Fold each of these.
Amino acid sequence: MKYLLAIFGFFSLSTAHAGKVFTSYEDYYQQQHGIFLGKVLKESNEGYSIQSAHGLCGEDDMCKDHNGNLGSKKIKITVSQTKGAFQIKDRSFYYRDARVLDGAQNPPEESPLYGVSAYIARKNKNRPDIICIEGYYMGSERFRNTEVFLVINPLGSRNKTQFLHLPGLHSSCMAVLQEPDGSISYPSNSYVLDDKTGQSTGLSMKYFSVKNGVPRSLSRETRLRFIEAGNPFKFSIE
């Protein structure tokens, strides 16, 4: 019954916004009220390097902190600006070590993320705390691909912490949703191409859930239609 209600809510949302023209994926994902909505951590104004007592940033590195609260506890996420890694408390997470979910690509070795934002969703009765890191790699595709990394149960024991790399095409931490069974879900996006011209005319968003680190298809799809063929940044819901 809960699953049917979730599906009903998902399609009701799509129906409510049918015909609306979106000019950013951030705006579109915010309408879905995902688990990270309004939960971005405060970013420090300047980067820094330190010489000792730090497992990630040394003299030749630069880091930036993202600060917030996890319940009554303060939490700091330190993101390297020269390495492909970030740190939560005393634990370092290297992007290359994340489990790559279907549709995602392996990150470049040791490459840092740019334009990083960090989010945190507090645990509830169905799931543990989750931290989301998003940013982009330098290159021609940086406006289309957002690298999204999830750390599930970040303060738990290492064998109970999951580190996942989500598909990046027009992705966002804001796209992660809560399912009634306690799992979280995310879209795996791909372009819809015109058979004759080969131009992209829309985006297919197929949803998958993750529970206990295991992804599965939800047999749920949203299609976006581009207002102008080949331009994925102005669209409506089919």
Amino acid sequence: MGTEPRARTPRRRIRLAAVLLMIQGVLMEGGVFLALPVLLILGIDQADAAERFAFVVPYLNEYLYLMMVMAGVFGALRVVAAIGLLRDRLWGFALAVIMCTVTLVLMILLLPAGIADGLLSGGALVLLLTAWYGAAPISPPEPGSR
């Protein structure tokens, strides 16, 4: 009886990571992607849209609409990874780790929105890795020790 909560802890961490990925994929990335058709229908020029929201790297502002399409791709991949995690699939775990890692690498370029991306992806990555590795030590036990 005493080991039941520990046995469920990795599963809870993986589910929480899936929720974080789902939030990030649907609300953050999906919302940006869904704003693109609205901007296009309203006839808002890319340069006008970039005036109201700016990235740290000016190059990204010049291609804001392409960045919005890219957000849709990232969002879809996050949702697929979250579904894989919720279905207890190893491919979902691998895709989630890749997506979190890529996001952490790119977040500095996507400031200010990168801060929220970093918090959600960083949190999900920590949950995934602690669920996978648990309390396993880094170094092997020394000979003669228990």
Amino acid sequence: MLSSRYRRGFAELLSQPLNFSSFGVNALVQAAYIAVFGALAYSPVRHEGPPVLTGFTAL
């Protein structure tokens, strides 16, 4: 529970309108991040040649 001296600041935070002007750009950046690193993470599974990480041996 918020103490009384911080309650007014929290109410002022909620009273301001939300700004969604950069939502589209940020969503596009996040989708690109997921696509690039998801493809990199999934690529060794579908790789049919020699091991991708050469030089590493199993213990």
